[in-house]
Amino acid sequence: MLLAIVTIFIIGYLVIAFEHPLRIDKAAVALLLGMLLWVLYAFGAESIVPVADAEELSHYLSSSTTLQSLPLAQQCLNFIVNVKVIEHLGDISEILFFLIGAMTIVELIDVHGGFSIITNRITTRKKRKLLWILGFITFFMSAILDNLTTAIVMVMLLRKLVSDQRERWLYASMIVIAANSGGAWSPIGDITTIMLWVKGNVTTSALVKFVLLPSMVSLIVPLIFASRMLGGTLAPVDTTVKTHSDFVSFGEKRLILILGILGLIFVPLFKAVTSLPPFIGILFSLSVLWIFTEIMYNRKMIDEAHQCRVPKVLKRIDIPTILFFLGILMAVAVLQATGILTSTAQWLDVNVHNVYVINILLGALSSIVDNVPLVAASIGMYPIVDPIMLSSVSDPAYMGYFVQDGIFWEFLSYCVGVGGSMLIIGSAAGVVVMGLERINFVWYLKHISLLALCGYLAGAFTYMAEVILFKGGL
Fold first, then answer.
1. Rounded distance, CA 230 to CA 385, Å?
2. Mean pLDDT of the region 234-241
């Protein structure tokens, strides 16, 4: 059954990759893939659960006061399967609601012409110069916001600057790389760095000190190569303002922009202060902006057709992208629930036993599956080692990599964050940009993946050089 799950997962990814030749929407395939894998998991629970969740199954069986009969064992299996579905759906729902909230805020700013305030200040029409400007804006913005939100904002800005779709694909691809690289060195820039930071595996100072430079290198290298694909100046973009924007003053546009950006910046601060999931913070910000726009339109004596209240904006949200996200994450959740990801990590530990090679391979794997379960599996496998206890372990030199701010955790933050750029479906930022811009998987694979790989390896070697220079050698 595990072999069947892995095989179908690979086939599903291939069908998604060849969406355009097959002319089948990737959202439909992703949904079918996610639901089918859970069906297989349920049918194979009798052989999967005792291995993947032996302690949990034993707990439910031993806690029963009735005879441990086959029907009782089957009831426990069914209960665990349903619990797994609910647990993973809960985690995925947090991401989806966050995505809906962020997309609504960004769309609200866009339809009111707020982004024009920013794009009007980007006066260059030189393609190469614009590429570098957008790349570094994205890189540093994703360290403050998360890379998913940053990718959405930057794609909306990009649409105001570049009209040709194929050229926009190249810019959007660099935005994906920049967002992932920028999120790797900040404790609030990516969900994986948040996990490592909250768990105490890394500290803010260590991330900035040792991961910033490798992350920047991982962006600069692809930008250098991508610049050679561009030349000349950009064609003029249609700057016709939407009809309803005629009824919104410049001051109101600016205020909506400020409230929206502050609302997005508020989310990581909200997470740090309250420890509540980020989706609560983004929905809180959306509600404030929603109330503001309601009051704004109530004061205006204009026809309802020219108003753009939040209910109307919600109809503009790209629902297929949301469903695509749901299907992909549900499919990856099965790999986690069945223990496939954990087994892969254990195999690497036993057969490789080198933190640099393990992390580089995990980074490559994160371009195929979600990096969140990879980091979760790594945190579960390698608890933080107390430096005082190193002398009592059998391999103190190797275990020293797993202390707080140890080499393994810093390099893991870099690898799983940046590695996802090697495939368009390898990161949340990539998936949402793929949905928004309809980027062809095969096009990204042919034109961008090698650039991302070069940047990824260059940044990895940069980190190793830092270890040699500042941490006493590899």
1. 49
2. 61
Task: Look at the chain and count its residues.
Answer: 474
Tell me what the mean pLDDT of segment 409-415 comes to: 92
Count of other CB atoms within 10 angstroms of residue 117: 15
DSSP character for 238?
-
β-partners of residue 233 are: 126
Closest CA to 246 of 186, 315, 306: 306
Amino acid at position 28, single letter: A
Spatial contact of 92 and 326, defined as CB atoms under 8 Å apart = yes
Are the C-beta atoms of 182 and 153 separated by less than 8 Å?
no
pLDDT band per the 50, 70, 90 thresholds, residue 8:
very high
Q: Virtual CA dihedral for 200, 205, 210, 213, nearest 10 degrees?
A: 130
Closest to 105 in 3D by CA, of 158, 152, 171? 152
Residues 3 and 20 sit within 8 Å (Cβ to Cβ): no
- Predicted TM-score of the model (pTM): 0.73
Report the distance separating Cα 426 and Cα 416, nearest Å.
10
